[in-house]
Amino acid sequence: MTREFSAGGVVVRQMRGRWWLAAIEPAGRSPSAGKTVLALPKGLVDAGETPEQAALREVREETGVEARLVAKLGDIKYVYTRSWAGGGRVFKVVSFYLLRYESGKLGEIAPEMRIEVCGAEWIPLEDAPRQLAYKGEREMATKALEYVTRNPGLKLLEN
Fold first, then answer.
1. Element at 129 (helix H, strand E)
2. What is the pTM (predicted TM-score) of this model?
3. CA angle 109, 83, 7 (to 5 degrees)
4. Contact by Cβ (8 Å): 120, 63
5. Most-buried pick from 38, 43, 97, 129 (CB within 10 A)?
6. Which CATH number fits domain 2-150: 3.90.79.10, 3.40.50.300, 2.60.40.2550, 1.10.760.10?
7. What is the sign of the dihedral through the CA atoms of 138, 11, 18 and 34?
8. Sequence-ordered list of residues with C-beta below 8 angstroms from that of 115, at least 6 positions apart, any chain
C-alpha cells in the first residue's frame, strides 16, 4: 500500500470581535443539495519540505493569505483508493496546524491554482465544525476553537 503525507492549515483571524476561519471551496467537488462544499487548505508535503512549511505553502497557494504557525492540532489518517494512475489503495496522513492570519486578501488565488480551488471565504470559527464537509476537518476546526478559547492571547510559536 502506498503512503502519502500531507499538511494543512486552520487559519484563524479575529474580526469584529470574533474568530473566523479561512475555508476553501475545492474545484471539482459537486455540492450536495445545493450546499457549497467547504474544506481546509491542504496538500502533499514536497521533498525537502517539513510538514509545517507545506501547511504554510498550501495555505498561501489555496487561499491567497500569509499566516504564522501557532500550534499543531493533530493528524487525520485514512485509506482511499486512487481514481487515477491505475488505481491502488493509499494510506494517507494529513497533519493540521493552527495558523494565525498575517496578511493578504482571502480568495486572491493564482490562476494555476483554480484547477484545485474555486474560491475561499471567511466563516465564523464557531460554525466551522458544522460547515466543513469532511469529518476529520470538522474535528480540526473544533480543536482550533478549543485552542483559541483556552488561549485568548493566541501566542505564536517561534520558528
1. helix 128-131
2. 0.90
3. 45
4. yes
5. 97
6. 3.90.79.10
7. negative
8. 27
